[in-house]
User: Fold these one by one.
Assistant:
Number 1:
Amino acid sequence: MPEEPRQPGGDPVGLTEIVGQASAVSRLQRMLAGGRMPHALLFFGPRGVGRRTTAEALARTLLCAKPDKTPEGLRACGACESCRLAAGGSHPDLHPVYKELARYHDDPAVRNRVMQDLGIAVIRSFLIAPAMQGATLGRGKVFLVREADRMSIPAQNALLKTLEEPPAGVTIILLARQAEQMLPTTRSRCASVRFGPLPAEFVRERLQAAAVAAEEAEFWSRFTEGSIGRALELHGLGLYEVQRDLTGRLAALATGGEDGLGEHLADLQEKLSGEFVRRAREADGGELSRTLAGRQAAAALLELVASVYRDAMAVACGAETPPIHADDPRAIETVAERFPADQLAEILEQLTRFEGLLWRNVNAKLLWDNLAITCESAAPLGSY
Ligand SMILES: [Zn+2]
């Protein structure tokens, strides 16, 4: 699965087209305008809010032969050789760095290793070594390190010197969700640029522009808390229909009118994990293990289930925040009428616990059956 789908509406060629991240972009524009672009940057923030799109736009601007000066700031021209190569994804001086590159490593031992993190072999061969070589087009080199918060500690240590004093013309942009997971020594060598969640309204409009129906767009904009990338991903997985159905079933369960929820969830997990495997293969030719895909699928389903109880909890507590499930208020009321707030809190806690159990090899069907009992009665999950 790609870490961050692009913003819909085509690839932006320059920073001026980036929407929804005004503070990050204006900061970058000030750095560009003042000729003070740091050589190491850390873009951090939630997934799907435009970190990677912005980094690519910045890279194109830095590498462009003749960037346009617009009232909003610099913008890659889109026409020079550099811009054309970047648009085609084949710029010799624009280097994406990501853990799956291990597959192209010279050493078969590295190629065959399970790619859990971004390891030292990838950082050495695909960042440190090429950074030492001169730029092909002569306007510098840019390295975009995806999932930098998954760099192993040896990889981070190996990179320190390059971050501290990159060869002339080299810019390194680290993309991370949780900057605090990285070594302080890595963070302190980079200029940090924070990317916040996008406004719900912005996400909704963008989804509708991508032909997502109004009701669904409304739902994902609140569910994802301002992540357009994630909203598009969940939409693409067809999970809106799944959530409508699940919400109905959870309401029915609260009034004793639902059998077979556990089995239904186990089936959904199976189907969804197959989809994750297929997508990983399409995205970057990567093989996602069945186990990992199963956990991702279960986590996505759990989040849908939890959102129902979170909404019910908000109703039970008289909160004024708009519900996520505005498309089915009756279902939420039904759940809120069935359980007092303390039991809803208990269910939510058990859902969190469930996620932890997924990482042990407990039988999935058995787990989902247990979860259905928890959702019906607020009883704790069994012990395993
Ligand atoms: Zn250009």
Number 2:
Amino acid sequence: VPELPEVETIRGQLEPMVSGRQIVESWAFPSGKFTDARTATGAAIEGIRRRGKYLLGDLDDGRELIVHLGMTGQLRVVEAHDPMAGDVDADSFTRAWWRFDDGDRLVFRDVRRFGRIAVVDAGRYDGLPTLAALGPEPFDPSFTAAGLHAALARSSVRIKTQLLGQRVVAGVGNIYADEALWAAKINPSARTLSRPRAAALHAALIEALSAGLRNRGTTLRDYRGADGEAGSNQHALNCYGRAGKPCRRCGAPLRRKVVDARGTTWCPTCQR
Ligand SMILES: [Zn+2]
């Protein structure tokens, strides 16, 4: 599932390929989750930003083309002269494409269809409540240890569930939440955190996401960059996906449990 490092990797690769290009034709799979894609026809893409796990394409007519990759979404540019270009249309998992004036296409493929495409007036996120309510970006100076402590203290929901909720910090999903909680030695089921422990979690979140960015994302199954390449952060994980293997800090076997319906890996010795 693409989280901040994966989405940011795609953004960085895609931006130079699509910026300044005019969309002359578009197509979408007939589902309300994707049909907005067609309304971008006629506009040019000025740049691509990221907010949390959302990609925000700035259009030159004052609108934004928003893409959420969901579980299995992939974005890539298929050049007009690519011998495989015809496969885009034959592929039953193609959910949308946008054709530029030179015939190249930006293609959105999504096997499981948890992705979403929207075209809205810039900044008008009424129809996208999760995006509208996103917490601070983890690499923004507005994301502070004190702010994280205060935000977590406002709710008695379990810490891991709050991280996944996107309101206390944007862009964290199951992989980086498990990694950060392990690094900060915090039990994923905890409901309250002291100031020092919140500060440890703040630092651990930034480090876990930084590692993911350095390694161009974590590829477990579906994630690929816009260049089609897998990330390598899966080789750097300390906790996520390692249930039954020894904790790299204390040697005890890591365990897996369900926290508010989400599979969670943790060390019962370190993360009390
Ligand atoms: Zn341990």
